[in-house]
Amino acid sequence: xxxxxxxxxxxxxxxxxxxxxxxxxxxxxxxxxxxxxxxxxxxxxxxxxxxxxxxxxxxxxxxxxxxxxxxxxxxxxxxxxxxxxxxxxxxxxxxxxxxxxxxxxxxxxxxxxxxxxxxxxxxxxxxxx
Length: 129
What we know:
- By secondary structure, the protein is mainly α.
- The chain has two domains: 3-80, no CATH class; 95-129.
- It has helices spanning 3-30, 37-60, 65-79, 81-93, 100-128.
- The longest helix is centred in the C-terminal third of the chain and has 29 residues, at 100-128.
- The N and C termini lie far apart (42 Å).
């Protein structure tokens, strides 16, 4: 790891986070009855983008290491970690035993994430009054 790699991830992450904020705000204005629409949009869009970049970058090697850090880890990581989770899950599902590790990874992340939110809320109520 070097300073330039960290800067690529940091700059990309800042852009991705700002894009997520803008999309969420605009989606809430556009569709006030579904305030979580922005999350859906960035998750699906991020998955489409990471699939494209991973597929074309891996097969044709047109993405440099720094470009991958900036775009995939930074921008898409700041936009949505769901895209990274989806890419990892697909990669794991392609390894033997078929679908076992991918399925486990998806369920563990989703169920673990939901449980952690509930536990975090419980801690907040318990210790913060």
